[in-house]
Amino acid sequence: MLALSLSLLSCNNDDDNQQSIDCELVNCQNAFIAIDFLAQSDGENLFTNGTLTRESFQVIDISSQQEVSFGINSEGLVYITPNIESKSVNSYSYEVKSSEETILTFTLDAKNMATSEDCCTVIEFSNVNSTNPSFERNSDIHQVYKVTLNL
């Protein structure tokens, strides 16, 4: 659904009577995977209850050992923005740490689906998995996952 909505922001315009979209004026949404970190004991979000903090939180690309961009909304949902430029399907592995301790590892396949006519990057994610048995896709929202942790 995210890929479809982003692809609607294409600069391609087959209608000769309309002007093409100026891509500099388009506000693109970053492609992301969102994770809701929940307490195993009561299901409460671990950021909103203060167990996890932005300052002690890191997301690491395992292959490059580089930090990955992320944001946290007011409800404690973590938005991870992988740096994906390849036009072929590639696998990525991530390690999530809090105070230098690994609390989650997960993998995903991703492909940049954007064409030269698209204003925005269009990323297709698939095979998002973790060895943590509680890691699962939120059935209500595409590309949002939840994991319960005993911290």
Kindly summarize this structure in a few lines.
The chain is mainly beta and 151 residues long. 4% of the residues lie in helices and 40% in strands.
**Spatial order of strands in the largest sheet:** 4-5-1-10-9
CATH architecture: Sandwich
The largest β sheet comes out as: 5 strands, mixed
Task: Please provide the count of β strands.
Answer: 10
Hey, roughly how much beta strand do the residues contain? 35-45%
Note down, in words, how this protein is organized.
- The chain is mainly beta.
- It has one domain (about 1-10, about 30-150): Sandwich (Immunoglobulin-like), CATH 2.60.40.
- About 5% of the residues lie in helices and about 40% in strands.
- The chain contains one helix and ten strands.
- The strands form two sheets. The protein has a five-stranded mixed beta sheet, with no helix packed on it. The protein has a five-stranded antiparallel beta sheet with strand order 3-2-6-7-8, with no helix packed on it.
- Strand 2 and strand 3 (about 65) form a beta hairpin.
- The protein is globular, with a radius of gyration of 17 Å.
- The relative contact order is 0.24.
Features of the shown structure:
disordered N terminus, 4% helix, 5-stranded antiparallel β-sheet, 151 residues, mainly beta, Immunoglobulin-like, 5-stranded mixed β-sheet
What topology emerges from the helices and strands here?
Elements: H1 2-7, E1 33-39, E2 57-61, E3 66-67, E4 69-72, E5 77-81, E6 90-98, E7 101-112, E8 123-130, E9 136-137, E10 144-149
Parallel strand pairs: 1-10
Antiparallel strand pairs: 1-5, 2-3, 2-6, 4-5, 6-7, 7-8, 9-10
